[in-house]
Amino acid sequence: MNGKALPHDSKEMLSMLAYMHWLSQDVPTGMEIAGRGFIRITAPEPPNKERGEKIYVEKCALCHQPDGQGQHGPNGETIFPALWGDKSFNIGASMARLNTAAAFTKANMPLGQGNTLTDQEAFDVALYFTQQPRPDFAEKSSDWPDGDKPEDARY
Ligand code: HEC
């Protein structure tokens, strides 16, 4: 969402299409698959940014770095993705939304230790990182034309 669209006939686009086609072989269209996505959670009490920052420092900064910029290889390739700043997902990404970020974090982070944070901790740390500066989304004005804007959208 925060890069340049690939040409439809590029090698990269065709490779991704082939991969997705391979992933979905034998799966009927529209069918839900076990293990896809993650379970939605709710915060027992209002999320708190200060608590979130402490969790971030203790459990996330090792990989995503204290400044949230992640770690990148010599050719700019991502080793650990940035959670905020120029290299991170933009404000239009689902991950920029508190409820999605909390549910993803709860299920998958810290890497290799999914489901070790409480629901409250997942919301606290998600509030901390979703509210950091990140790239804008140029097409945001065309989002939710029917007025069905989610409650945790940032714009
Ligand atoms: C051991 C290293 C490690 C730790 C610790 C870790 N992460 Fe991650 N995180 C990763 C990696 C690697 C990815 C990319 C995973 C992938 O693409 O499948 C990732 C991805 C993410 C993403 C998705 C980013 C995107 O661009 O979509 C979020 C959000 C995230 N981590 C949050 C956290 C939070 C919050 C914590 C602390 C509770 C945490 N991570 C701890 C390694 C780590």
Automatic annotation (TrEMBL):
SUPFAM superfamilies: Cytochrome c
GO molecular function: electron transfer activity; heme binding; metal ion binding
Record's compositionally biased regions (Basic and acidic residues): 136-155
Residue stretches making up the Cytochrome c domain: 47-133
Stretches for region Disordered: 134-155
InterPro entries: Cyt_c-like_dom, Cyt_c-like_dom_sf, Cytochrome_c-type_DH
Keyword annotations from UniProtKB, A to Z: Heme, Iron, Metal-binding
Protein's name in the database: Thiosulfate dehydrogenase
Lineage, uppermost ranks: Bacteria, Pseudomonadati, Pseudomonadota, Betaproteobacteria, Nitrosomonadales
